[in-house]
Specification:
This protein is α/β, with parallel strands linked by helices. The protein has 15 helices and 13 strands. Helix 3 runs parallel beside helix 10, helix 11 packs parallel to helix 15 and helix 12 runs parallel beside helix 14. The structure holds pyridoxal-5'-phosphate (PLP). Pyridoxal-5'-phosphate binds next to helix 4 and helix 5.
Length: 388
Protein backbone atom coordinates (compact mmCIF):
# COMPACT_ATOMS: atom_id res chain seq x y z
CA UNK A 1 0.00 0.00 0.00
CA UNK A 2 1.08 3.56 -0.64
CA UNK A 3 -0.45 6.08 1.74
CA UNK A 4 0.55 9.72 1.32
CA UNK A 5 0.53 12.22 4.19
CA UNK A 6 -2.32 14.01 2.37
CA UNK A 7 -4.16 13.43 -0.89
CA UNK A 8 -6.15 15.99 -2.84
CA UNK A 9 -9.76 14.90 -3.02
CA UNK A 10 -11.86 16.72 -5.62
CA UNK A 11 -15.21 15.67 -7.05
CA UNK A 12 -15.72 15.80 -10.83
CA UNK A 13 -18.16 18.66 -10.37
CA UNK A 14 -15.52 20.58 -8.42
CA UNK A 15 -12.90 20.00 -11.10
CA UNK A 16 -15.36 21.06 -13.79
CA UNK A 17 -16.22 24.24 -11.90
CA UNK A 18 -12.90 25.68 -13.05
CA UNK A 19 -14.22 25.72 -16.61
CA UNK A 20 -16.94 28.23 -15.83
CA UNK A 21 -14.70 31.31 -15.50
CA UNK A 22 -12.61 30.08 -18.42
CA UNK A 23 -15.74 30.00 -20.55
CA UNK A 24 -17.20 33.26 -19.23
CA UNK A 25 -13.90 35.07 -19.69
CA UNK A 26 -13.97 36.61 -16.22
CA UNK A 27 -10.73 35.20 -14.84
CA UNK A 28 -9.83 37.29 -11.80
CA UNK A 29 -11.63 39.25 -9.05
CA UNK A 30 -14.97 38.46 -10.63
CA UNK A 31 -18.21 36.76 -9.60
CA UNK A 32 -16.56 33.50 -8.51
CA UNK A 33 -14.29 35.30 -6.07
CA UNK A 34 -17.32 37.07 -4.61
CA UNK A 35 -19.25 33.79 -4.39
CA UNK A 36 -16.37 32.04 -2.60
CA UNK A 37 -16.01 34.97 -0.18
CA UNK A 38 -19.73 34.94 0.59
CA UNK A 39 -19.73 31.20 1.26
CA UNK A 40 -16.66 31.59 3.45
CA UNK A 41 -18.35 34.28 5.55
CA UNK A 42 -21.44 32.10 5.93
CA UNK A 43 -19.34 29.09 6.96
CA UNK A 44 -17.13 30.88 9.49
CA UNK A 45 -19.59 33.49 10.69
CA UNK A 46 -17.11 36.24 9.82
CA UNK A 47 -18.59 39.56 8.74
CA UNK A 48 -16.13 39.98 5.84
CA UNK A 49 -14.02 37.57 3.79
CA UNK A 50 -11.34 38.67 1.35
CA UNK A 51 -9.85 36.13 -1.04
CA UNK A 52 -6.10 36.45 -1.60
CA UNK A 53 -3.23 34.53 -3.18
CA UNK A 54 -2.14 32.64 -0.04
CA UNK A 55 -2.41 32.62 3.73
CA UNK A 56 0.99 34.29 3.82
CA UNK A 57 -0.19 37.18 1.66
CA UNK A 58 -3.21 37.46 3.98
CA UNK A 59 -0.94 37.72 7.03
CA UNK A 60 1.15 40.32 5.23
CA UNK A 61 -1.88 42.38 4.15
CA UNK A 62 -3.36 42.22 7.65
CA UNK A 63 -0.23 43.51 9.35
CA UNK A 64 0.31 46.07 6.63
CA UNK A 65 -3.27 47.35 7.00
CA UNK A 66 -2.71 47.72 10.75
CA UNK A 67 0.11 50.17 10.09
CA UNK A 68 2.74 47.76 11.39
CA UNK A 69 6.16 48.93 10.27
CA UNK A 70 9.89 49.33 10.88
CA UNK A 71 10.96 48.86 14.50
CA UNK A 72 7.64 47.39 15.58
CA UNK A 73 7.62 44.03 17.36
CA UNK A 74 5.21 41.16 16.89
CA UNK A 75 4.89 38.02 19.00
CA UNK A 76 4.83 34.68 17.17
CA UNK A 77 4.93 31.12 18.51
CA UNK A 78 8.33 29.52 17.88
CA UNK A 79 6.69 26.40 16.43
CA UNK A 80 4.78 27.31 13.26
CA UNK A 81 5.29 27.54 9.52
CA UNK A 82 8.09 30.02 8.79
CA UNK A 83 5.87 32.50 6.97
CA UNK A 84 4.04 33.54 10.16
CA UNK A 85 7.36 35.16 11.12
CA UNK A 86 8.51 36.17 7.63
CA UNK A 87 5.71 38.69 7.10
CA UNK A 88 6.96 40.63 10.14
CA UNK A 89 10.44 40.79 8.60
CA UNK A 90 9.00 41.88 5.25
CA UNK A 91 7.47 44.93 6.93
CA UNK A 92 10.70 45.82 8.71
CA UNK A 93 9.54 44.59 12.11
CA UNK A 94 11.16 42.43 14.74
CA UNK A 95 10.04 38.88 15.43
CA UNK A 96 9.63 38.03 19.11
CA UNK A 97 9.21 34.30 19.57
CA UNK A 98 7.18 32.73 22.36
CA UNK A 99 7.43 29.06 23.33
CA UNK A 100 4.54 26.66 22.87
CA UNK A 101 2.60 24.21 24.97
CA UNK A 102 3.69 20.69 23.95
CA UNK A 103 0.24 19.25 24.53
CA UNK A 104 -1.55 21.57 22.09
CA UNK A 105 1.38 22.71 19.87
CA UNK A 106 -0.02 26.23 20.28
CA UNK A 107 1.46 29.31 21.96
CA UNK A 108 2.03 28.94 25.72
CA UNK A 109 -0.45 31.45 27.13
CA UNK A 110 1.50 31.86 30.37
CA UNK A 111 4.59 33.17 28.59
CA UNK A 112 3.05 35.80 26.31
CA UNK A 113 2.94 38.72 28.74
CA UNK A 114 6.67 38.50 29.51
CA UNK A 115 7.37 39.06 25.78
CA UNK A 116 5.45 42.33 25.57
CA UNK A 117 7.48 45.56 25.40
CA UNK A 118 6.52 49.13 24.55
CA UNK A 119 7.34 48.35 20.91
CA UNK A 120 4.99 45.36 20.71
CA UNK A 121 2.28 46.16 18.19
CA UNK A 122 0.89 42.78 17.22
CA UNK A 123 0.49 39.17 18.15
CA UNK A 124 -0.04 36.31 15.71
CA UNK A 125 -1.57 33.31 17.48
CA UNK A 126 -1.51 30.21 15.29
CA UNK A 127 -4.24 27.56 15.27
CA UNK A 128 -1.84 24.79 14.42
CA UNK A 129 -3.06 21.70 12.62
CA UNK A 130 -6.70 22.71 13.12
CA UNK A 131 -6.69 23.30 16.89
CA UNK A 132 -7.62 26.79 18.04
CA UNK A 133 -5.28 28.72 20.30
CA UNK A 134 -6.76 29.65 23.68
CA UNK A 135 -8.25 32.91 22.40
CA UNK A 136 -9.85 34.40 25.55
CA UNK A 137 -6.60 35.15 27.41
CA UNK A 138 -5.00 36.29 24.13
CA UNK A 139 -7.85 38.74 23.51
CA UNK A 140 -7.57 39.98 27.11
CA UNK A 141 -3.86 40.67 26.72
CA UNK A 142 -4.46 42.32 23.35
CA UNK A 143 -7.04 44.65 24.91
CA UNK A 144 -4.83 45.42 27.87
CA UNK A 145 -1.75 46.24 25.78
CA UNK A 146 -3.51 47.50 22.65
CA UNK A 147 -2.14 44.80 20.36
CA UNK A 148 -3.36 44.02 16.86
CA UNK A 149 -4.29 40.32 16.64
CA UNK A 150 -3.78 38.41 13.40
CA UNK A 151 -4.91 34.81 13.71
CA UNK A 152 -2.83 32.47 11.58
CA UNK A 153 -5.68 30.14 10.75
CA UNK A 154 -3.88 28.55 7.80
CA UNK A 155 -4.88 25.12 9.15
CA UNK A 156 -8.06 26.40 10.78
CA UNK A 157 -10.78 25.14 8.43
CA UNK A 158 -13.51 23.74 10.72
CA UNK A 159 -11.67 24.71 13.92
CA UNK A 160 -13.83 26.19 16.65
CA UNK A 161 -13.19 27.72 20.06
CA UNK A 162 -16.10 27.85 22.49
CA UNK A 163 -18.43 27.16 19.60
CA UNK A 164 -17.15 29.95 17.36
CA UNK A 165 -15.13 29.41 14.19
CA UNK A 166 -11.51 30.61 14.27
CA UNK A 167 -10.75 33.72 12.26
CA UNK A 168 -13.50 35.63 14.07
CA UNK A 169 -11.61 36.44 17.30
CA UNK A 170 -8.69 38.61 16.22
CA UNK A 171 -8.63 41.77 14.16
CA UNK A 172 -8.19 39.42 11.20
CA UNK A 173 -7.86 35.69 10.54
CA UNK A 174 -5.92 34.20 7.63
CA UNK A 175 -6.63 30.83 6.01
CA UNK A 176 -4.67 28.77 3.49
CA UNK A 177 -5.82 26.73 0.50
CA UNK A 178 -2.46 25.14 -0.22
CA UNK A 179 -2.87 21.44 -1.17
CA UNK A 180 -1.73 20.34 2.30
CA UNK A 181 -4.73 22.09 3.84
CA UNK A 182 -8.26 20.69 4.19
CA UNK A 183 -9.67 22.39 1.11
CA UNK A 184 -7.50 23.60 -1.71
CA UNK A 185 -7.38 26.01 -4.62
CA UNK A 186 -3.80 25.06 -5.53
CA UNK A 187 -2.51 28.25 -3.98
CA UNK A 188 -4.86 30.62 -2.24
CA UNK A 189 -5.92 32.21 1.00
CA UNK A 190 -8.75 34.05 2.74
CA UNK A 191 -8.69 36.91 5.21
CA UNK A 192 -11.63 37.25 7.59
CA UNK A 193 -12.47 40.28 9.70
CA UNK A 194 -15.48 41.62 11.58
CA UNK A 195 -14.27 45.19 11.07
CA UNK A 196 -15.76 46.70 7.90
CA UNK A 197 -13.24 49.53 7.60
CA UNK A 198 -10.34 47.10 7.96
CA UNK A 199 -11.94 44.85 5.34
CA UNK A 200 -12.12 47.78 2.92
CA UNK A 201 -8.48 48.58 3.52
CA UNK A 202 -7.37 44.99 2.96
CA UNK A 203 -9.46 44.77 -0.22
CA UNK A 204 -7.71 47.88 -1.49
CA UNK A 205 -4.23 46.71 -0.55
CA UNK A 206 -4.88 43.36 -2.26
CA UNK A 207 -5.67 45.15 -5.50
CA UNK A 208 -2.88 47.71 -6.06
CA UNK A 209 -4.54 50.05 -3.58
CA UNK A 210 -7.57 50.64 -5.84
CA UNK A 211 -10.51 52.36 -4.15
CA UNK A 212 -12.99 50.14 -6.02
CA UNK A 213 -12.83 46.50 -7.10
CA UNK A 214 -13.13 45.62 -10.78
CA UNK A 215 -16.42 43.89 -10.02
CA UNK A 216 -17.82 47.03 -8.34
CA UNK A 217 -16.59 49.15 -11.23
CA UNK A 218 -18.10 46.87 -13.88
CA UNK A 219 -21.41 46.76 -12.06
CA UNK A 220 -21.38 50.50 -11.39
CA UNK A 221 -22.78 53.40 -13.39
CA UNK A 222 -19.54 54.33 -15.15
CA UNK A 223 -17.54 51.12 -15.67
CA UNK A 224 -15.33 52.85 -18.25
CA UNK A 225 -13.64 55.12 -15.67
CA UNK A 226 -10.64 53.87 -13.67
CA UNK A 227 -10.58 53.85 -9.87
CA UNK A 228 -8.48 56.12 -7.69
CA UNK A 229 -5.64 54.58 -5.64
CA UNK A 230 -5.46 55.95 -2.10
CA UNK A 231 -2.76 53.39 -1.12
CA UNK A 232 0.37 51.96 -2.72
CA UNK A 233 -1.02 48.43 -2.61
CA UNK A 234 0.06 45.01 -3.77
CA UNK A 235 -1.20 42.45 -6.23
CA UNK A 236 -2.48 39.63 -4.07
CA UNK A 237 -5.71 38.90 -5.90
CA UNK A 238 -7.17 35.43 -6.18
CA UNK A 239 -8.18 34.25 -9.64
CA UNK A 240 -11.73 33.18 -10.45
CA UNK A 241 -10.38 29.77 -11.49
CA UNK A 242 -9.15 29.22 -7.95
CA UNK A 243 -12.26 30.75 -6.43
CA UNK A 244 -14.53 28.49 -8.51
CA UNK A 245 -12.68 25.46 -7.15
CA UNK A 246 -12.85 26.75 -3.59
CA UNK A 247 -16.48 27.75 -3.85
CA UNK A 248 -17.47 24.32 -5.17
CA UNK A 249 -15.77 22.58 -2.23
CA UNK A 250 -17.65 24.83 0.22
CA UNK A 251 -20.87 23.06 -0.73
CA UNK A 252 -19.61 20.08 1.28
CA UNK A 253 -17.60 22.00 3.87
CA UNK A 254 -19.40 20.53 6.87
CA UNK A 255 -19.15 17.02 5.46
CA UNK A 256 -15.40 17.44 4.98
CA UNK A 257 -14.93 18.53 8.59
CA UNK A 258 -17.08 15.67 9.89
CA UNK A 259 -15.19 13.11 7.83
CA UNK A 260 -11.82 14.37 9.05
CA UNK A 261 -13.02 14.34 12.66
CA UNK A 262 -14.27 10.78 12.26
CA UNK A 263 -10.89 9.65 10.89
CA UNK A 264 -9.14 11.32 13.84
CA UNK A 265 -11.48 9.64 16.28
CA UNK A 266 -10.64 6.22 14.83
CA UNK A 267 -6.95 6.95 15.35
CA UNK A 268 -7.63 8.29 18.87
CA UNK A 269 -9.46 5.10 19.83
CA UNK A 270 -6.83 2.83 18.32
CA UNK A 271 -3.91 4.59 20.03
CA UNK A 272 -5.57 5.40 23.36
CA UNK A 273 -3.42 2.94 25.33
CA UNK A 274 -0.04 3.73 23.76
CA UNK A 275 1.98 5.62 26.35
CA UNK A 276 4.75 6.25 23.80
CA UNK A 277 2.53 8.22 21.44
CA UNK A 278 0.79 11.49 22.32
CA UNK A 279 -2.25 11.97 20.09
CA UNK A 280 -3.79 15.40 19.29
CA UNK A 281 -5.26 17.48 22.11
CA UNK A 282 -8.98 17.50 22.67
CA UNK A 283 -10.83 19.70 25.13
CA UNK A 284 -14.39 20.83 25.78
CA UNK A 285 -13.74 24.35 24.47
CA UNK A 286 -12.17 23.12 21.26
CA UNK A 287 -13.49 21.60 18.07
CA UNK A 288 -10.51 20.30 16.11
CA UNK A 289 -10.54 20.66 12.33
CA UNK A 290 -7.73 18.11 11.84
CA UNK A 291 -5.78 19.70 9.03
CA UNK A 292 -3.42 16.92 10.04
CA UNK A 293 -2.97 14.40 12.83
CA UNK A 294 0.09 15.58 14.81
CA UNK A 295 1.51 13.28 17.49
CA UNK A 296 4.54 13.28 19.77
CA UNK A 297 6.84 10.31 19.94
CA UNK A 298 7.89 9.20 23.48
CA UNK A 299 6.17 12.18 25.16
CA UNK A 300 6.85 11.00 28.73
CA UNK A 301 10.60 10.89 28.19
CA UNK A 302 11.06 14.36 26.72
CA UNK A 303 13.65 16.62 28.32
CA UNK A 304 16.38 18.85 26.88
CA UNK A 305 18.85 16.01 27.45
CA UNK A 306 16.74 13.31 25.78
CA UNK A 307 15.53 15.19 22.70
CA UNK A 308 18.36 14.05 20.41
CA UNK A 309 17.87 10.40 21.32
CA UNK A 310 14.10 10.55 20.88
CA UNK A 311 14.66 12.33 17.58
CA UNK A 312 16.87 9.47 16.37
CA UNK A 313 14.20 6.95 17.39
CA UNK A 314 11.45 8.96 15.71
CA UNK A 315 13.41 9.20 12.47
CA UNK A 316 14.03 5.45 12.53
CA UNK A 317 10.32 4.87 13.02
CA UNK A 318 9.43 7.28 10.19
CA UNK A 319 11.84 5.33 8.02
CA UNK A 320 10.17 2.01 8.94
CA UNK A 321 6.74 3.44 8.16
CA UNK A 322 7.97 4.82 4.83
CA UNK A 323 9.32 1.37 3.91
CA UNK A 324 5.78 0.10 4.49
CA UNK A 325 4.46 2.77 2.13
CA UNK A 326 3.18 5.07 4.88
CA UNK A 327 4.24 8.70 4.58
CA UNK A 328 4.69 10.73 7.75
CA UNK A 329 6.18 14.15 8.50
CA UNK A 330 7.43 16.14 11.47
CA UNK A 331 4.34 18.17 12.42
CA UNK A 332 6.05 21.42 11.33
CA UNK A 333 9.30 23.22 12.13
CA UNK A 334 10.69 25.31 15.00
CA UNK A 335 11.26 28.63 13.27
CA UNK A 336 13.89 29.82 15.76
CA UNK A 337 16.08 26.92 14.64
CA UNK A 338 15.93 27.83 10.94
CA UNK A 339 19.04 29.58 9.71
CA UNK A 340 17.66 33.03 8.98
CA UNK A 341 16.14 33.45 12.46
CA UNK A 342 18.86 31.56 14.29
CA UNK A 343 21.52 33.85 12.78
CA UNK A 344 19.63 37.14 12.84
CA UNK A 345 18.45 36.84 16.44
CA UNK A 346 21.32 34.67 17.70
CA UNK A 347 19.04 31.93 18.98
CA UNK A 348 19.73 28.48 20.42
CA UNK A 349 17.36 25.50 20.18
CA UNK A 350 16.98 25.44 23.97
CA UNK A 351 15.82 29.08 24.06
CA UNK A 352 12.38 27.67 23.25
CA UNK A 353 12.60 24.13 24.60
CA UNK A 354 9.07 23.01 23.76
CA UNK A 355 9.28 24.27 20.19
CA UNK A 356 12.62 22.47 19.92
CA UNK A 357 11.12 19.24 21.31
CA UNK A 358 8.09 19.51 19.01
CA UNK A 359 10.39 20.00 16.03
CA UNK A 360 12.47 16.94 16.91
CA UNK A 361 9.89 14.55 18.37
CA UNK A 362 6.61 15.21 16.51
CA UNK A 363 5.18 13.00 13.81
CA UNK A 364 2.06 13.57 11.74
CA UNK A 365 0.28 10.48 10.50
CA UNK A 366 -1.69 10.41 7.21
CA UNK A 367 -5.14 11.95 7.52
CA UNK A 368 -7.19 13.35 4.65
CA UNK A 369 -10.83 13.27 3.67
CA UNK A 370 -11.27 10.56 1.09
CA UNK A 371 -8.91 8.28 3.04
CA UNK A 372 -10.16 4.72 2.67
CA UNK A 373 -10.93 2.56 5.66
CA UNK A 374 -8.41 -0.07 4.56
CA UNK A 375 -5.76 2.64 4.26
CA UNK A 376 -6.38 3.82 7.79
CA UNK A 377 -6.54 0.23 9.08
CA UNK A 378 -3.14 -0.38 7.54
CA UNK A 379 -1.64 2.69 9.23
CA UNK A 380 -3.16 1.63 12.56
CA UNK A 381 -1.82 -1.92 12.13
CA UNK A 382 1.71 -0.67 11.43
CA UNK A 383 1.68 1.78 14.33
CA UNK A 384 0.46 -0.94 16.70
CA UNK A 385 3.19 -3.30 15.48
CA UNK A 386 5.87 -0.85 16.48
CA UNK A 387 7.75 -1.81 19.64
CA UNK A 388 10.33 0.28 21.34
C1 LIG B 1 0.41 26.43 5.48
C2 LIG B 1 0.68 27.42 6.51
C3 LIG B 1 1.00 28.75 6.20
C4 LIG B 1 1.23 29.22 4.79
O1 LIG B 1 0.10 29.12 3.99
P1 LIG B 1 0.27 29.53 2.43
O2 LIG B 1 -1.13 29.54 1.91
O3 LIG B 1 1.11 28.47 1.81
O4 LIG B 1 0.91 30.85 2.39
C5 LIG B 1 1.16 29.65 7.23
N1 LIG B 1 1.03 29.28 8.51
C6 LIG B 1 0.73 28.02 8.86
C7 LIG B 1 0.58 27.67 10.30
C8 LIG B 1 0.57 27.04 7.88
O5 LIG B 1 0.31 25.78 8.23
Amino acid sequence: MNIPIARTNLLDSEINSVLEPLESGWLVQGPKVKEFEDKWSAFTGAQNSIAVTSCTSGLHLSLSASGFGPGDEAIVPAFTWISTANVIEHLGGRVVFCDIDLETFNVDIGQIESKITERTKAILPVHLFGLSSDMDPISDLANQYNLFVVEDAACGFGAKYKGRHVGTFGNTGCFSFHPRKAITTGEGGMVTTNNDALAEKIRRLRDHGAAMTDLQRHLGARPYLLADHPDAGYNQRMTDLQAALGSAQMDRANQIVIERQALAERYDDAFADLDWLQTPFGGDDYEHGYQSYPCIFMPKDISLESVKKINAGRNQWMDDLQKNGISTRPATHAVHMLRFYKDKYNLMPEDFPNAYAADQCSISLPLFHGMKEEEQDFVIEKVMEFKN
